[in-house]
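Fill in residues.
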């Protein structure tokens, strides 16, 4: 297949491009800069210059592809309304040209905010609907197009998609631990996160566009529940620093923006995902990655 990938040089996107190429697919990646374009061509992919605001490029990439993997996001924490607007407009543009084609459209989302009192199931619908909602309601927007001739697939990511070179939440926790000279957890540390290795995530995305039915929700989750205290203890061991409890009211001060998330449980099941695609995670666990030095020895992706 010819696969159009947005976010193609990002943390998950770059692994996905490699996975798709290894499986024999042709990849066209959206590239915001010449450096990103060069990175893609060096891997054997084709670069399409543009960004999430360039709706014509998004339409062209989707129109000429056999499948689309949408991973890009502005991640502007200071302007969530703009993030949401951009996301919805971008998804609308791509779905517009995919309607009636039967082509796969794989869209990314997270587990946070779907269900608060338990692990999220693949059967749980996102409550975010419409332009003014989180991510512009793009998950439900995509799934609505399953009835309009698009093989829409949602891949929900664990809060930690980990591995060597990760610049996400765990990297921020390690940076806070270095700054504070202690590895902290919030309160009693009973909040829990799901986790998955980056390579397993890329493989799941590939399996999804190759064979998941329209309307499928997939969970990129290998470990369903790791307590935040266990994460902090692994970081403390890796950095050889004490592990301490941080009062909830001090979480933002201690951890920075990731403190808001580290005090929350964000977990999801993967039972239906495994059964649907025969997906079996094989990468290291989050604790194994942390203890191996993936986050503390200065390595990059």
């Amino acid at each position: 297949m010819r696969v159009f990938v947005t976010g193609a040089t990002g943390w998950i996107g770059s692994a996905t491009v490699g996975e798709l190429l290894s499986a024999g697919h042709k990849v066209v990646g959206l590239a915001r800069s010449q450096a990103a374009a060069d990175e893609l061509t060096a891997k054997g992919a084709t670069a399409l210059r543009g960004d999430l605001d360039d709706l014509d490029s998004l339409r062209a990439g989707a129109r000429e592809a056999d499948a689309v993997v949408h991973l890009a996001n502005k991640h502007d924490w200071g302007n969530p309304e703009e993030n949401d607007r951009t996301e919805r407009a971008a998804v609308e543009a791509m779905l517009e040209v995919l309607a009636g084609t039967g082509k796969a459209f794989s869209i990314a989302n997270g587990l946070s905010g779907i269900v608060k009192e338990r692990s999220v199931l693949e059967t749980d619908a996102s409550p975010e609907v419409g332009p003014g909602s989180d991510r512009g309601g793009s998950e439900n927007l995509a799934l609505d197009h399953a009835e309009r001739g698009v093989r829409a697939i949602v891949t929900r990511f664990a809060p930690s998609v980990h591995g060597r070179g990760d610049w996400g939440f765990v990297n921020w926790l390690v940076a806070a631990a270095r700054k504070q000279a202690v590895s902290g957890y919030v309160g009693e540390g009973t909040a829990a996160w799901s986790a998955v290795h980056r390579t397993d995530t890329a493989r799941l995305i590939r399996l999804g566009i190759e064979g998941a039915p329209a309307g499928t929700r997939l969970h990129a989750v290998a470990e369903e529940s790791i307590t935040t205290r266990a994460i902090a203890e692994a970081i403390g061991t890796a950095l050889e620093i004490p592990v301490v409890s941080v009062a909830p009211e001090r979480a933002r001060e201690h951890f920075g923006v990731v403190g808001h998330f580290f005090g929350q449980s964000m977990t999801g099941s993967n039972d239906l995902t495994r059964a649907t695609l025969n997906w079996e995670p094989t990468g290291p666990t989050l604790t194994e990655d942390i203890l191996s030095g993936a986050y503390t020895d200065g390595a990059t992706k």
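The first strand starts at residue 2 and ends at 6.
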